[in-house]
Amino acid sequence: MISIVRRTLRHCLTLALVLSLGACALFQGRDPVNISVIGIDPLPGQDLEMRMAIKLRVQNPNETPIEFNGVALNLEVNGQPLAAGVSDQRGSIGRFAEEVLVVPVSITAFSMLRQAVGLSRVQNLDGMPYVLRGKLASGAFGTMRFTDEGRLDLPKPAGGTW
């Protein structure tokens, strides 16, 4: 009787191991999506807030399409939160394809004040760091998070001075 239980347990463990290895093949890693901010347009604001529409180019470098049902963004400039926004857009980004998404964001008066105080300590606005964090929502296991960071390089006038 004990040998039957052991044999059954061993078969169950072997089956579980084989199934878990097969499941690993289903959840192969994806390359991260490439996100670029390609435009910022003003939107009507209310009272003490500013609103902007951030245009993002989203590139899918994977062999499978990305289905999404929402977008969220947070923008930090100079290490301080500046803007946040969400959109309930739905769509699909095909395999090895790209789409342009437009996400409205809000900038509160307090965020603007925090940025103004931070800018008063800066000698030069050129090279100020920014970080854009966001996600493309697609259910519990399909959400894709992304980060884009860099430095704001202001255009130089033709003569080299302002």
From TrEMBL:
Q: Which Pfam families match?
A: LEA_2
Question: What is the originating organism of this protein?
Answer: Pseudomonas fontis
Q: Where is the Water stress and hypersensitive response domain?
A: 35-155
The organism's superkingdom is given as Bacteria
Q: Keywords on this record?
A: Signal
The protein, known as? LEA type 2 family protein
| PROSITE patterns, A to Z | PROKAR_LIPOPROTEIN (PS51257)
Where is the secretion signal located?
Answer: 1-25
